[in-house]
Amino acid sequence: MYERRLDNLRRLMEERKLDAYFTVHPANIYYLSGYRGDTGYLLVTLKEAYLYTYPLFMMEAEEQTTKEVNVRILKDSSYLKLIQDDLKDSHSMAIEKDYITHSIYKDLFCALSDKIRPISNLAGELRKNKDEKEIEFMKKAQEITDRIFRHVLNLNLSSMTELDLAAEMEYQMKKLGAEGYSFKTIVAAGENSAIPHARPRNVKIGSRTNLLMDFGVYYMGYASDMTRTIHIGNASEEFKKVYNIVLNAQKEAENAVKKGKKANEIDQIARKIIEDAGYGEQFTHGLGHGVGIEVHELPRVNRRSEEILEENMVITIEPGIYFKNKFGVRIEDMVIVKKDGFEIITQSPKELIEL
After folding, report:
1. pLDDT of 128-151, one tens digit each?
2. Looking at the chain, which terminus has fewer C-beta neighbours within 10 angstroms, N or C?
């Protein structure tokens, strides 16, 4: 698996006339080497790969890192000195400008100014297309997420605060086998749900309100991400109308997903339905994003994205409508792009639930 990933990276390097690639981004290091420690530097040349880390992480590095990568434990030598030695046969080294800190860039520039080539997320381009094992992990992550949603529906929600519910959901994540949340859990009732990335408040959810929950987990280093909006008590006709518009937009966008489609075309399908209903200004974000090692990664699925959907990309479809000081509705699934269509990973019901 890692040998294939490193070979794919080297093909990209050769296409762009790069002799070496350097990353400090944990997601890319994990993808290419298997290492998940807190600190590490990865250097890939056209012939070798090297992971540099400190004695504190030595056992993790030796246990997790694939045999295709040489582990260098930094004791007395600095990583710069080792990189200079390992680059002796290389003339150019790509560094990821989106992730590298100023201090590391400054150190590298001082030591290797003639070789440095700043680039965007090269490994991130490879990560867009998931293999069987990655999809297996993401399905397991989403299975846990679906189980948490079912658990939520059996709670006495009206007596809980948003913070209570977020804490209960995050407790269930680990109890069900997840490593933790893939992003901070969003629990938002009533007017708070009009904020797309609302923070849970120490405020009771109450008995006659909508409740938006956006949450996900990590399983074996891979993320899930889903949103469901439910209603506690009977929903108003206005809320039902808005909910059904969002649901229709979401379903129609999903139905259009397949290999070869432009990401912005998928966004436009959902956006047009919402705009035609008169709520275009209330749909304030892109339709979705890629999911994998990171909960937000390539490809982007928004009105500006020129990316073409490819087989085995995993993306979210999550339209929303938000009314300031009133309520918001968002529905989100994770979807696998297939050759002739799509597969929805998310199994939770999305027809309006009134508790």
Report:
1. 999 999 999 999 999 999 999 999
2. N
Same domain, 161 and 277: yes
Q: Please give the model's pTM, rounded to 2 decimal places.
A: 0.94
Same domain, 250 and 267: yes
Indicate which CATH number applies to the domain containing 67.
3.40.350.10
Q: The domain containing residue 141 runs over which residues? A: 132-344
Alpha-carbon distance 261 to 311, whole Å?
Answer: 11
Contact 198, 212 (CB under 8 A): yes
Spans in the chain with pLDDT lower than 70: none
Residues 169 and 200 in one domain: yes
In a domain, 142, yes or no: yes
* Spatial contact of 311 and 337, defined as CB atoms under 8 Å apart: yes
Rounded Cα–Cα distance for residues 129 and 136 (Å): 13
